[in-house]
């Protein structure tokens, strides 16, 4: 009995403090998260049960407490530890109750989803890969980004027990597409959403049996999105109808698809975890070639008929393949895991490297950005950061911009890697920046969203998500479209910033 009790205590402590599995993108939502979301209800049920027993079964209750007293006297240390665990559980449940119900969404401006509208889909640029295109700027239209951080609206999914929007949105016209993870006590799953950016209504939602971290690519009236996290296998890349969400085809892999496919000339290029890299036909979903020798999770890039990607497991390398055949052209070893999705500028290709994961820094944090010659793979320049560079590298107007877990956003000269500016945001940056001519928009893991001047990195405005809810974390990357900023977050929220204020009349002045 004593051994079993000590073993139970050990397991409880171990589960509480065990570190996550080694994966750059850990499972961000699980049955435990779903369980925590209903702790108040569980506590209420237990409380009612205890009161019922005390009232209707007094003799039984007396016998129970007598035995409990005798056990406590005989096993003082064990009884003390159990008391501590019970009190800690009660305190945690109380904290969850306050967190869940102490900050109602009703205080936010105009957040309710409106009745179904008849607004049509505007014909705008496609969103062909992670961050919109091979420059990874998160901005594909000609409109500037929001000049203020005013909250325009909040979308909150009320249906699932626990939801995580750590996927990054793709916005085409007035349609926002995003993946999600859903959790209940006994199961996990995911869904892809299409949301009207003007009415905030859900146009469609396609559910998946596996959680989704992958961000969608949208082109030709279709949505392409992967499924799965590092520990998942047998996951699919799915093709959905952009208007209805109906499945068109699915492509099964032996591993997981955390990446976003790159759409180029009717083909989809994507990494599939331990199952390597694929090229498939975008129309029919049929395999064209498969490069199976690596474990890769980033979104690749195609430039001048070459496919570029890096690996963060096993031997760390950057690869170039022939985009038509999948034949390896060159492979260059790297000192750290290669996570940051690449971009290109002229004859250079840029990658982010680093130790640690999205949720935690490594014991010895290391990170850098490397620029390689696109033809030869030779390193042209390197820039060291104080921690991992897990974000995509945005290329714009002869510069590259990226974030790091060290809390800084950096802008470097693309040809030579010289520092142009860096801005200290005070929180880990694992969300890829969105870049326009005027501003750099970025989220920090601790739930803050910033607009920085592209010219010098000066903070133009800041939005704190505690105005929406407590304990929000940001892994999703912002998108700038229609003059506004859209971003997903933990705890079931999608935010839109940059509310357009009505123009002043002469009388107002």
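Q: What amino acid sequence fits the structure above?
A:
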């Amino acid at each position: 009995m004593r051994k079993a009790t000590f073993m139970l205590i050990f397991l409880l402590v171990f589960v509480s403090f065990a570190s996550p599995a080694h994966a750059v993108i850990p499972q961000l939502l699980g049955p435990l998260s779903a369980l925590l979301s209903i702790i108040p209800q569980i506590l209420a049920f237990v409380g009612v049960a205890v009161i019922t027993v005390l009232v209707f079964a007094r003799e039984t209750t007396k016998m129970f407490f007598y035995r409990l007293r005798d056990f406590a006297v005989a096993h003082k240390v064990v009884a003390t530890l159990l008391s501590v665990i019970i009190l800690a559980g009660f305190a945690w449940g109380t904290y969850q109750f306050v967190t869940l119900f102490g900050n109602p969404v009703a205080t936010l401006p105009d957040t309710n989803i409106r009745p179904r509208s008849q607004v049509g889909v505007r014909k705008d640029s496609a969103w062909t890969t992670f961050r919109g295109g091979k420059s990874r700027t998160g901005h594909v239209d000609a409109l500037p980004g929001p000049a203020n951080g005013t909250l325009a609206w909040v979308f909150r999914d009320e249906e699932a027990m626990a939801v995580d929007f750590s996927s990054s949105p793709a916005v085409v016209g007035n349609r926002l597409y995003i993946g999600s993870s859903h959790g209940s006590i006994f199961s996990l799953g995911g869904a892809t959403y299409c949301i009207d950016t003007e009415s905030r209504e859900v146009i469609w939602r396609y559910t998946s049996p596996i959680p989704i971290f992958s961000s969608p690519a949208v082109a030709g009236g279709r949505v392409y999105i992967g499924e799965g996290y590092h520990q998942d296998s047998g996951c699919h890349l799915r093709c959905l109808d952009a208007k209805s969400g109906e499945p068109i085809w699915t492509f099964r892999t032996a591993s997981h698809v955390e990446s976003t496919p790159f759409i180029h000339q009717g083909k989809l290029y994507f990494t599939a975890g331990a199952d390597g890299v694929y090229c498939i036909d975008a129309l029919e979903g049929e395999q064209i070639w498969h490069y199976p020798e690596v474990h890769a999770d980033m979104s690749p890039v195609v430039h001048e008929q070459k496919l570029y990607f890096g690996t963060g497991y096993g031997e760390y390398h950057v690869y170039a393949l022939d985009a038509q055949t999948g034949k390896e052209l060159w492979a260059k070893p790297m000192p750290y895991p290669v996570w940051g999705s690449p971009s290109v500028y002229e004859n250079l290709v840029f990658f982010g490297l680093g130790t640690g994961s999205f949720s935690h820094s490594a014991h010895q944090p290391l990170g850098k950005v490397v620029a390689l010659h696109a033809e030869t793979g030779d390193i042209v320049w390197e820039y060291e950061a104080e921690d991992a560079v897990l974000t995509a590298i945005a290329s714009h107007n002869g510069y590259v911009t990226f974030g790091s877990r060290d809390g800084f956003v950096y802008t470097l000269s693309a040809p030579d890697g010289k520092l142009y500016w860096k801005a200290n945001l005070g929180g880990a940056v694992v969300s890829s920046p969105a870049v326009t001519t005027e501003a750099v928009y970025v989220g920090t893991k601790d739930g803050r969203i910033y607009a920085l001047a592209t010219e010098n990195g000066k903070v133009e405005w800041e939005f704190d998500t505690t105005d929406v809810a407590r304990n929000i974390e940001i892994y999703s990357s912002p998108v700038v479209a229609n003059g506004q900023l859209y971003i997903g977050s933990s705890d079931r929220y999608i935010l839109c910033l940059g509310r357009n204020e009505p123009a002043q009349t002469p009388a107002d002045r």
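Q: And what stands out in the fold?
A: The chain has a mean pLDDT of 82.
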